[in-house]
Design brief:
Elements: H1 3-27, H2 33-65, H3 69-87, H4 101-111, H5 113-124, H6 130-150, H7 152-157, H8 159-185
Helix pairs in contact: 1-2, 1-6, 1-8, 2-4, 2-5, 2-6, 3-4, 3-8
Length: 188
């Protein structure tokens, strides 16, 4: 697998995590470098770790997991999306973080399930994992920090609408994952 192919794979895997980070930036009342770092570390870490995990697990686990992975991702992202929308209606004087540590980890897992599947594919193709894991982690982390920071101005100006957009983005990502798998496999 050449460097261009690995880079394109890494960029493709980073998209969902970056969109969730953008949603966080839109819905956050207070933006901090620590929050940008946490998003980058969690999403980048999960993308890289799941890619490596899929590579080591191989085909038997891939076949079993393919039957449920899309349902898990959809359920988690839909739940987090609904909660994000609801938080737009919370008391405006109360400080809040749209994602606590638990929800951030759940979102990290949900958005990296495709990396697990990609790792299976890399193992089946006998492709080396080191460069793919490093690039995926780095590109995801950088993209998430940038996406979170990008949502800053819009989120402050239109807070309730930003929560709706952020929540709907999360739900849409989950729905897209579900529909891609259901459409691709022909089974529910």
């Amino acid at each position: 697998m050449n460097l261009l192919a690995v880079t394109l794979l890494a960029c493709g895997l980073a998209v969902d995590s970056c969109l969730v980070s953008l949603a966080q930036g839109l819905s956050a009342r207070v933006h901090t470098a620590g929050r940008a770092f946490a998003l980058a570390a969690v999403f980048g870490g999960f993308q890289g770790a799941m890619l490596v995990g899929g590579w080591f697990a191989g085909e038997p686990v891939a076949r079993w997991f393919a039957h449920v992975d899309h349902w898990i991702a959809f359920g988690v992202l839909a739940l987090i999306g609904v909660r994000t929308i609801r938080e737009g209606y919370a008391n405006g004087d109360e400080p809040r973080e749209p994602f606590g540590a638990g929800r951030l980890v759940l979102a990290g897992v949900a958005t990296s399930i495709d990396a697990l599947a990609a790792g299976f594919g890399l193992a089946l193709a006998d492709a080396p994992i080191t460069a793919a894991a490093l690039l995926t982690t780095t590109i995801t982390a950088a993209g998430c920090a940038l996406a979170y920071t990008s949502g800053r101005g819009l989120g402050r100006r239109w807070e309730r609408g930003a929560h709706w957009v952020a929540g709907l983005v999360l739900i849409a990502i989950g729905a897209r994952i579900l529909l891609e798998h259901l459409g691709g496999s022909g089974a529910a």
